[in-house]
TrEMBL record:
Residues 3-51 form the Thioesterase domain. Keywords: Hydrolase. CDD domains: PaaI_thioesterase (cd03443). This is Thioesterase domain-containing protein. GO terms for molecular function: fatty acyl-CoA hydrolase activity. Signal peptide: none annotated. It comes from Serendipita vermifera MAFF 305830. The lineage of its organism: Eukaryota, Fungi, Dikarya, Basidiomycota, Agaricomycotina. It comes from the Eukaryota. It holds the Pfam family 4HBT.
Amino acid sequence: MTGVSTDINASFVRPAGKLDEQIRMETSVVGIGGNLAYTRTEFRDAAGKLVAFGSHTKFVGKTVNHPKNVKFSADGETVVEGEDILDDID
């Protein structure tokens, strides 16, 4: 489930994203409290150089324990708990 974004920040460090170039994105949950959740994201080019970073703060007060929430595997690729709604899309 989702809530309202209270802060979104993005900083672009250097040019990237040319045709056929891969960019790696890594995001982590910095913390989740009773009302707010905090995330941080970094984007790196093929050489591993930082090209952009950002953060996101979201109000989650009424959504933290919602029954339709899901949990993902450590790599973020698979739903391991809850209903994967993408399984229903053909």
